[in-house]
Amino acid sequence: MRGFAERRTAAARRAVGAVDLTPGPDTGRPFVFLARPALYDDTTTRLRPVGAWVRPRAAAAVACVVLGLGLIGGAVTGSWLTGESDAAGGSRNAYVEAGELWHSVPVDELFPPSIKGEGAGPGGADRTWNRVAVAPDSTCKDAFDPLLRKALAPAGCLRLLRATYADATRSHVTTVGLLFTKADAEAMRSLRTRFTEEGLDTRPDLMPRPYAAEGTPAADFGNLQRATWTLSVLPDAPVVAYAVSGFADGRAVTDPEPAAEAMKAGATSAPAQAGLGNDAKGIADRVERGLRKTVSAATEKAS
After folding, report:
1. pTM surpassing 0.90?
2. Distances (CA, A) of 204 to 67, 78, 233, 275
3. Res. 151 pLDDT band, cuts 50 70 90
4. Distances (CA, A) of 247 to 107, 162, 173, 178, 202
5. How many CA atoms lie within 13 A of 149 on its CB side?
6. Residue 124, Cβ density class (10 Å: 0-12 exposed, 13-18 middle, ≥19 buried)
7. Each residue of 21-43: pLDDT tens digit?
């Protein structure tokens, strides 16, 4: 079973394109390899007398239909209970519904003016984040560093939504983003598997870019000010959710670290001591949670 699962995962990755995230030999830039899709398997068919298998196979077919209907019903129910996506039935509708939210849901619903983070700060302290800027919805051009753009390329970019928040003291700023992709459920699962298994979501050279807006506490929140981040490829929606945090005073950060590392007990880095990892993780989690709630409500209304 394990060998079959590994071959299936490898085939799925080939289907969406294998992205090489190492620099090219001459240009110093990453490049993309698109593997030849596996369209068929070699099989050998033995011909047998018709009378030897027609009746047994007809009975088996009836049994398979009955068993299959039961399994399909159980699978659809299970997918809703676990939050997993499937290409059939109601779960497919939820997946499609999620992919259309970027143009049908008010910005205040996706990015609330104020986000409460009860117990989300260091040591379980409460946090409050206030929205200070909303970026116009856009494509992904210039929104990501080149290497991260290459890593996300297999899923495609349909639309990117971003907003920037400041903490209650207006000393920390965080950009949260929702990248709506063009990928189907299988491609998103493959992308998620690669990001998690290869640790792409924790590599500093794959850190998302912030959104700075003049006249706000985030005016000086540039690429050099990125301190900590989190990124998640959702398994049940064509969405990549992320957040990146930094200091509002414009100080550069030489050693950014993933939010998960900055939130560890005993972490001594400046981002960890300031709770910037908690800001990135707390905002990203709540925006993602709100997205799922909106999808559920829209799906129930449609049905």
Report:
1. no
2. 49, 36, 17, 18
3. very high
4. 25, 18, 6, 22, 20
5. 13
6. exposed
7. 654 444 333 333 333 333 333 33
